[in-house]
User: Fold this.
Amino acid sequence: MNCLFCRIIAGEIPSNKVYEDESFLAFRDIDPQAPTHILIIPKTHYDSVLEAPGEVVGRMSGIAAKIAADEGIDNKGFRIVINTGEDGGQSVKHLHMHLLGGRSMEWPPG
Ligand code: AMP
Assistant:
């Protein structure tokens, strides 16, 4: 298995889990860009959002909102991001949603 996130799902690589259900996993980013930086991933492998059914992406958004509330960042706000492809800056080819919060964020991102 070459996919890093599939290996995290399989438990072959450790992660700092914050949420798990039968279809999704969320864990803290190893290189956080904000005080709260969590990745939400489907357990089914999709290379990117281009391959994933919209329902999957919708459920990821719902999980991100729930985690934001659990992390206490829902009040001041947060950012969710899905980097896609080369120009989108996607480095791991397994669909993932970034949840970022706990600080003010500039737009556009640097
Ligand atoms: P992207 O650049 O959108 O593909 O995001 C990939 C993210 O995965 C980056 O923010 C990395 O810091 C993060 N990452 C890479 N390896 C790990 C890991 N083993 N555990 C947690 N996060 C990771």
User: Anything to note?
Assistant: The radius of gyration is 13 Å. The helical segments are 4-9, 54-71.
